[in-house]
Specification:
The chain has about 160 residues and is an all-beta fold. About 0% of the residues lie in helices and about 45% in strands. It has 2 domains: about 80 residues, Nucleic acid-binding proteins (OB fold (Dihydrolipoamide Acetyltransferase, E2P)), CATH 2.40.50.140; about 70 residues, no CATH class.
Amino acid sequence: MVHFKFFHGIVTMVSDFPTGQNGEREGCYKLVSVEEGGISVNFVVSPRTYFVDQAIVSVGDRVTGYYDGNAPVPLIYPPQYRALIMVKDSPYQNVKVDYFNDRLESGDGQLQLNISPFTLILLQNGQPFSRTPENRNLIVIYGPATKSIPAQTSPYRIIVWC
């Protein structure tokens, strides 16, 4: 199971990340540098990295990068993580990436989902998901939420992270 961790900040650089010896994958991987409060993190973005809303990220954008907290990382500074999911900030929606239990409550206990008939439940490839989203890793896109603990919301969209 993926243990999602994240870093939120402003993109300071986007560049090619070299992989392979013959250049066959040249340009397919990117290094996205993100900074917040004097702390820098580099995300390696691969063709498999999921970008919410297929957003294009550029220098100056506020983003959140999600990575597997259990995955090994090189001991370098700034830290370098393999990005699983990238989210570009939007004033019109919130995004939560986490494991949601059988009550559709996030692993950190901060958000509970109330599925409405209008909630789209999709796979990463955009196809409909036909099962219950309970007990799964989810990318939840939502708007307003209650101020209770956990906050409750009826999400616009749920992407099931299989």
